[in-house]
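Re: weekly structure request thread

Next one in the queue (308 aa):
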Amino acid sequence: MNLDLSFLNAKLVLPVDYKSVEFWLVGAGGTGSFMAMNLARLAFELKALGKQATIVIVDPDCVETGNIPRSNFCFAEIGSNKAETLAARVSRAWGIEVGFIKEGFRPALLQSKTDDWSVQTSNSNKLTILVGCVDNHQARLEMHESLKFHNEKSYDTTFPRLWWIDGGNGRDSGQVLIGNRLNEKEICQSVLNTPILSLLPAPSLQHPELLQPEGGKKPRNTRQTNERVTCAERIRLGEQSLNVNQRVAVEMSEILSELLLTQTLKRFAAYFDLESGASRSVYNTPDTILAATNFKLKAKLKSSKNKN
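Done, posted below.
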């Protein structure tokens, strides 16, 4: 019987030292509405440790009747903007500064509220985390572009100050991915040469299909793009488990807690299936991280390591 010892051999991930953290919750629907409350608890605990923590919620949509079964909204909130509604609720309940933006996420929003990355140095004390809770590739493209811009403009390439954690789900399965870099060479060299990691492959590097239309095909027309089945209808049709969004939010919260609170993060991906009850994580070992990057570069670096 082969035992999986990857957790025991996994390398610890530590973020750069910071005094403040800003969470950008992109998407306040099924998963995001639960994640807003989880971020509030995390921000509360960070403040207890002497860190400053703020939250910005981004979503252009309003609460609809169909959102009620599997989202963290109530009937009294129908017709209200999701981001504004959650921001007000979190602020009242936790006394935490929460901003909201009633439009779709785009890199310019983040850049306008973030320190100038082109002049950032290792003395900067702010950490920014994109918390992706969206169900479409366009929104993930915008987060990918934000990370790409940061990677290109920031001088602090060893300890990135922008992270992206992404949660997604199917009918009764889900995944959570976390990372901060798009440069395969830097990631591979780091995992091969450093005992403690600060670089992890971005969600879009781990799963490039996240940036493609569902099924890998472009919709035939705009009408097909805009037609969306309500959450309640998906549940009735058996296309959406009632609890899958909450589970994704819990997995995302645990990974962020391990990164920021307990500093015990040893994984960069988590997968689960509610029907079978199975779950697994992908741990920070050289083999798994190399596998999540470019194959040719992986082989080249392995060969170089063996020669040394």
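The domain at 8-115+124-307 is CATH 3.40.50.720 (Rossmann fold). Confidence is low (pLDDT under 50) at residues 117-123, 216-228.
Next request, please.
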